[in-house]
Write a structure and sequence with these properties.
By secondary structure, the chain is α/β, with parallel strands linked by helices. The protein is about 40% helix and about 25% strand. It is globular.
Length: about 375
Amino acid sequence: MSSEIRVNSKVYPGGEGQMLSMIDMLAYFEKQGALRVSDLHIKIGTVPAYRVDGDLVKLKGAPITHELFEQLVFPLIGKKALAALKTDSAVDCSYRLGEIQFRINVFMDNDGLAAAIRALGLDIPRPEEIGFPNTVWQDIVRKKHGLILFTGITGAGKSTTIASLIKRINENQACRIITLEDPIEYLFKQRNSMISQREVGRDVESFTKGLRAMMREDPDIIFVGEMRDAETVSMTLTAAETGHLVFSTLHTRDVIGSITRILDFFPTGRQDEVRNQLSLGLANVISQKLVPRKNGKGRVIAMEILNNNYAVANLIRKGKIEQIYSVLQVKTKDQPDERMITLERHLAMLVKRGEVDLLEAQKWANDLKCFIDAMNSEQDIKRK
């Protein structure tokens, strides 16, 4: 790679005689809005593609060669990340352009190098703008301890929702907030709270070591970017049990799968202990998806929300995880010990409001029969 190549060097033939730089390609996010255009994929052997409203849309340009990849991506990630890439065959890092923070993952695949670049707006939305189906977020920002777990596939908006809640806490409370992220996504400004954001690989070696150190740093609120192994899960649960409010994420599709996934981190001999710990330390599980809007303009959030009340805690402790869905279906009143909802019920609400097309909602439902039942219930409510 030439030392003269920079992020603003126009090296990519984008079609119709137009040459684009990496900066030009990133500027498209700001032009269209990071909520609509979420990712840019660059891979050797194919044409770069943006993810627009959930779908991949290829540029009208040339396939990426090894030389083009180096010219576009290497100046973006910098020398330190490039050295890590050569050692580990994958690297996470970040880049800021204007009002957008980009999360970058560069990795090796069968054809050579590939990069996934995700846009994260620096303007964190208010909780009222996220799309919660009820007022559970108001309960969360007032909590003093417990684990608030956000789950969903990559790109489901988990980090945005957590950032929104932490921002609200930061505005209204004087707390010590410490985050462990890989990499840092949203940047928080110092308001009423004191916030330290630590990036794994830069400020701390691992989530586990960061959590150990954090217990000596007097935090009130902790954000662990992802629970990746048994030790991190165990330490996160302990922190939630011992008087800290803890936010974290898992890559699972629903509430029940999230609880099962946590238990699966541990051998059978430890699962009774973990179930007991989870029943005491868990506060809420919020599983979310981003569903295309009916009008074709962006996506809307659909959530499944668990509130760990006495009945749910008892089911977790006894290992009757499969019965939790029934609790989600009935404990829907707008009061602190309820405020639960199934994904299917929230999708039905979005269809009835005209925000999501019926066929689209069916595709995103975890259980089609339960979605049909929820649609019928919504129809009955409307008649009344």
